[in-house]
């Protein structure tokens, strides 16, 4: 059995719409410095760096080479990943693999995006398949709305139920110092009366675009307890894809095959039979309200078609039986390359008992997911107990 | 309708003996942001001053927030607008050959990348050159037009 | 860009539009599909010999089974909407650089005989005129205007009264 | 107990200046089908995949989506590195050392013909202080070639001889499109590229893909495969090109040291060394660091990038060549009795990041 790894420190910038005060490199360094400062470590403890983003989003080819000084300097391995929206979670999974393999003892994972330096229209254009998608595109929102319509049609979830997810997210964000969109007084009515973008999706159903970076430090099992009072152990990881084209999965949100596969793999690995009961908290990659409800079902938090019931009953509220995204989630903060790593970091903070005002009391087992690319899913289980 | 200031990808379809080829142009408007040290460097250029950052015994030009070893840099330091060519190369471009130089400015440790406007027969490692400032003072690397014989 | 005399804290930005030309090969399967679309006004998929699934876009391998696919099957031009919306937020068509007039319909369409969907536009542009399960058919550009691209199909229009 | 991992299948697509007959998936599939056949397995047997590609080269964000289906990743774990293909092999190796996966696929693809190298490589420079001056990768190579010539005393003719040699080697490699035979004088009198470099000094722009099948020890045994063991592998990144002496390759030294240490080799020298070199001078610069005489038959029997292996793919092509050499299946390129090999790849301006794989023949 390979050795275990644990997250021992985390750092996030405060996510905002535009960081005009710093460059991309300085923004990344802010997250790295906060991460190391959490345990009073210096950068020389880091054996390797894994970093992820989408190069065309800021127009920089091989950005990790240009910005290597900000990452702590040359003279060590720097691994660059790009797996789409899920890349931050792919970074976390690779950090775990590198430590468990015995190749490195302490690995720093970084995810970032400074979306204000790019262009959201440009982003979606470059993501589209040049042969099959670019000539028939309706933007990220149009794509998402089509998927949501399939789910709404099958599950019968209502706009009110989706709006409750928006309210939960933006209220939870008020308890998270790093979150971007904070709306303490948001109401279901406000969400339902926000501008219609593409039915059933309204403005407040969607995530924002943010500038920000996140960093997490992974350490081998012998080191971890010495570096952190209560490390967040990586108990299981899994990665799964769907088919290649957007239209391949016949029922998209209604039947998220890669999310089902990845979550079932990690549940099996740690002996979770009833995720609603066995998980204490989940940080999932929900780019829109309807996606969160669909993910409840596909992550096995409830039966098929019962995603709306779960939010109605308050199960996923902070204080509910299984709080989902107490950080405010992607609906409140979305710097794409950082977003999935923020899910992992927030899950880690929960099981470390260091989530502050949005702490789920006594959280010991947390699920984090990333979702991007073409339904590319990463899933991790973090625990306060060494597995 | 006015041309939108948003990205475009035009497409032309070519029929070739090997199959279809789509010729597309992705055009994305980026907006880069300078951090404090780079802002100081660029605004210094608008005043015809070249600034570096102190890092231990070294002076790094252009001014920047982090030294190559990852440490934070210290104070800003003004260096000379004269220096020495560390390396040069000439490349063909559509408008004629362009010569680039790595120029270690007086007082600097690291070289600056810029264009050289030097007669081809005089190009040499170790050559002394000076900045030829552009007429317009702008906070941009193009505030220096090129480096010329000192 | 802010210039001389700006305070040290004042932001300094550099607008830089990057133009990236690419020559994308459509490939063997793609060229066969696009050429048939252009010349015959027909859609084709490739069938998995074991599972029987017909995949559109056509492709050399079915990732779900690992089977190589070389049997071509005509699909469509009619199909069923499996997901749909009316887009009311501006989006610039990347092929023209111009904003598409809003509102417009957009959908996943399962062409008859296919097991996967393609994205395309709907002729309808009002919520009351679209629904999941709606029967639609492709509206082609005239032959002379077709070039071998999915944009040779203008949109899909309803087959229902 | 760490698991030992071997390469048990190699496959190269036809490499050519321009493969506009295939899209990215079809290009990768040529390599994958060959590698799976070599290993004697089918795509459904593959448990995981790591791919390497670059969005700027492919002209698409998340370029790996184009090959997701052909690498068999449906409901399976594929990850994707940006950079030279040896980085993908290294990550696959790390994954399998943990015991999490037993049989995997490593794939790299690139089509250098489809984009505009000047514009693409310019996007790797600092937008404020460099991009406005319109530099590209070749400008840095010109500087580096000049600094290396001064530091080493090697002449432009010495570098040109490596181009001549690589092209001759490449003509013995069935997957590589033949390049015209040239002389040292042809290279030295070819049009200016970036002084002192000439056009013929540079690796030709090439389209291609490479795939490797990797397996842990018990799978190797149960399949009765013909393995070459991954003894060690490492990657290392130097300072940005402007911040270092371009005559030096410290990152390569560190990557070599770590890979060799992981392999447990007392002597870093190998019987076959595939050096990643996109310019003639880079063979002279990198080969000695990898412990091989650039003019010896042990150096670049495949010809490497100068013979027409593409950026990104080149590192995996280098591994593939080493594997065939150590299996004794390199045909007319065979280096007799090869037992140990080093494969090398790099990416970044002025070869900033280097990756090395140390490989051993089966006992």
Output the number of helix runs of chain D. Answer: 11
Number of strands of chain D: 11
How many angstroms does the end-to-end distance of chain D come to?
Answer: 20 Å
Question: What is the count of helical runs of chain C?
Answer: 1
Shape of chain D: globular
Q: Can you identify the CATH superfamily of one domain in chain D?
A: Thiolase/Chalcone synthase
Mean pLDDT of chain D: 97
How many separate domains of chain C? Answer: 1
For the record, the CATH architecture of one domain in chain D stands as 3-Layer(aba) Sandwich
Distance between the termini of chain C: 57 Å
Biggest sheet statistics of chain D: 9 strands, mixed
Order of helices and strands of chain D: EHEHEHEHHHHEEEHEHEHHEE
The portion of residues assigned to helices of chain C is under 10%
Structure description:
- Chain A has 15 helices and 11 strands.
- Chain A has 387 residues and is of the alpha/beta class.
- Chain A has a domain of 134 residues: Thiolase/Chalcone synthase (Peroxisomal Thiolase, Chain A, domain 1, 3-Layer(aba) Sandwich), CATH 3.40.47.10.
- In chain A, strands 3-2-4-7-1-8-11-10-9 form a 9-stranded mixed beta sheet. In chain A, strands 5-6 form a two-stranded antiparallel ribbon.
- Chain A is globular, with a radius of gyration of 19 Å.
- The model of chain A has no long low-confidence stretch (mean pLDDT 95).
- By secondary structure, chain B is mostly beta strands.
- Chain B has one domain.
- Helix content of chain B is 7%, strand content 48%.
- Chain B has 1 helix and 10 strands; from the N terminus they run ββαββββββββ.
- In chain B, strands 8-7-6-9-10 form a 5-stranded antiparallel beta sheet, with no helix packed on it. A 3-stranded antiparallel beta sheet of chain B has the order 4-3-5, covered by helices on one side. Chain B has a two-stranded antiparallel sheet with strand order 1-2.
- Chain C has one domain.
- Helix content of chain C is 9%, strand content 40%.
- Chain C has a 5-stranded antiparallel beta sheet with strand order 9-8-5-10-11, with no helix packed on it.
- The radius of gyration of chain C is 21 Å and the shape is globular.
- Chain D has a domain of 130 residues: 3-Layer(aba) Sandwich (Peroxisomal Thiolase, Chain A, domain 1).
- In chain D, the strands form 2 sheets. In chain D, strands 3-2-4-7-1-8-11-10-9 form a 9-stranded mixed beta sheet.
- In chain D, helix 6 crosses helix 10.
- Classes of the chains: A alpha/beta (387), B mainly beta (150), C mainly beta (161), D alpha/beta (363).
- Chains in contact: A-B, A-C, A-D, B-C, B-D, C-D.
- The interface between B and D is medium-sized, with 36 and 32 residues.
- Strand 2 of chain B pairs antiparallel with strand 1 of chain C.
